[in-house]
Amino acid sequence: MKRFKTVLFHTIMLFLAFLWLYPYLWLFVSSFKPSAEIFTKVVPSRFTLDHYRFIFTMAEKMKRPFLRAFMNSLFITTTVTFSVLLTSTIVAYALAKLRFRGRGAVFNFVLFQMLFPGFMFIIPLFVLIRNMGLYNTYAAMIVPFLMSSWGLFMLTQSYRSIPQDYIEAAKIDGASTFWIIFRVMVPLSKNTISIVSLFTFIGVWDNFLWPLMVVKDYSKMPLSVLLATFNHEYAAYVGPLLAGSVIQTIPMVLIFLVFRKQFLQGIALSLK
Amino acid sequence: MKLRRREAGLGWGILALYLCYTAVFWGYPFVWMLILALSRWRFVGKPSFVGLQNILRIFVDSMFWRVFWNTMNFLLYFVPMVFVAALLFALALNKMKYFKTFVTLSFLVSYVSSGVAYSIVFQRIFSEIGPLNRFLYNTFGFTIPWFSDPQLALFSIALMVTWKFIGYYGLILYSGLQAIPKTIFEAAQLDGASRWTTFWRITFPLMNPAVVTVLILSVNLSFGIFTEPYMITGGGPMNRTLTFLLYMYTTAFQRINPSYATALAIVTALINFSLVLIVRKVVEREVSFE
């Protein structure tokens, strides 16, 4: 009886897991179905790459450059992620390990910044970007996110748990500040760094409202915005839309699978 | 002494990098936010000061109240739904012996779905001819107008967002559950407490920090909904899925009224903030495992 209960329970959980995966499965399978069968057949009569071909060739002729949008997204996202990591790892060192007056006040200011929801600033930030002449440029999607108070906070917390002795020892060996940061602090904060990169990458890749506001040219749009405009203008092109959605989703799922361990640790961290 | 001076110099040198950047991309917008909220401006010329006129106008703006009630309605659907489901998920995960990683990842992968992509997918799955309605029609003989019925549309969006966040919130609750020392449960068992009592008297109260985290996250999320209604309903039918962010966006860029939109943003943030305070006041308890 107990055995039966265990089996039943696990079967139900597996069923639910598949139910949760269903939208993904449906998306993935449908993107390979012939157009006429997307809504009519569960198992298509044949698999086709037509929709992907359309996305990469036809869409170009319709002035909807998906391949370029994918590259734009990749460029913007990696630049921002790299910059957030670089600045956070350096500035956090000053906040966590250097002793001087005013450090606590600056750290409190970082916390204060994190209190404000992002949506409060988007319109004034838009005004700033326009005044700087950056409207409709790549810079508009990158420059406002080069530093992150959340990333800074996470790394400062992580650095604080590293014993001061390590730094003193490195100093006696004649290590420079940057050597200490990149050879001592960074390797000892690998988990936090993975979490910050994962969330920054996903956040920027999936950011929609901001690029929607600051970019007008199809050639400069990130994939999320191009896909959204395509959905509004050509809603009947279901197949290509689903193929585009697959392409938009893949990098996020991949990076999640790579960092899944750190991700799970990150969730436990967020409780403290 | 000299060494400490050098350390301070280095420290401020590094912090200057952050402070300068923040002054431009946080301080400047902050000041502009206050200026815009207190003036009338349409993207050109100089803002003309109007005092509290924008803020006062919000309270007699019928569309604002529509959006306000939409958000309250969304909270009423979303928060209990996602909370109960996430709690059940956490408890089930705690009981699982096999396939635990697979099930966890299946539920979590929805959390990393792209807002635009999953809106496109759910729009098709829930559409008139989509697989869900076809299944309903074939087995029960009726279909559900998920996104075209004014009352249902908001619920459908809440359902999508729940799909996305159950895994994430569930894992937060799960790690709260794991933090409780096992000895407490053993003691309760020795005292002859039933499982029901154990859960409501011991487990749930001790999970308080995780519960508060999930409630605050879900409240904040409800105030930041934009992509789903923008992609699927455009705020309709009958403005029933118009959210604060969507209203802000259309006010600033379609009705070209950025100053009023900024005032809206401030009021929205205040409502959001007070709701979070209420949640903390009502739910938060001091927890210790002594």
Features:
heterodimer, A: 272 residues, mainly alpha, MetI-like fold, 14 helices, 73% helix, B: 290 residues, two-stranded antiparallel sheet, 13 helices, 2 strands, 74% helix, globular
Task: Describe the protein.
The complex is a heterodimer of chains A (272) and B (290). Helix content of chain A is 73%, strand content 0%. Chain A is mostly helical and 272 residues long. Chain A has a domain at 65-224 and 241-269: MetI-like (MetI-like fold, Orthogonal Bundle). The longest helix of chain A is centred in the first third of the chain and has 32 residues, at 66-97. Chain A is globular, with a radius of gyration of 23 Å. The mean pLDDT of chain A is 90. Chain B is an all-alpha fold. Chain B has a single domain, classed as Orthogonal Bundle (MetI-like fold). Chain B has 13 helices and two strands, in the order αββαααααααααααα. Chain B has a two-stranded antiparallel sheet with strand order 1-2. In chain B, α8 runs antiparallel to α9. The two termini of chain B are 45 Å apart. The mean pLDDT of chain B is 90. At the A-B interface, α1, α3, α4, α5 and α12 of A face α1, α4, α5, α7 and α10 of B.
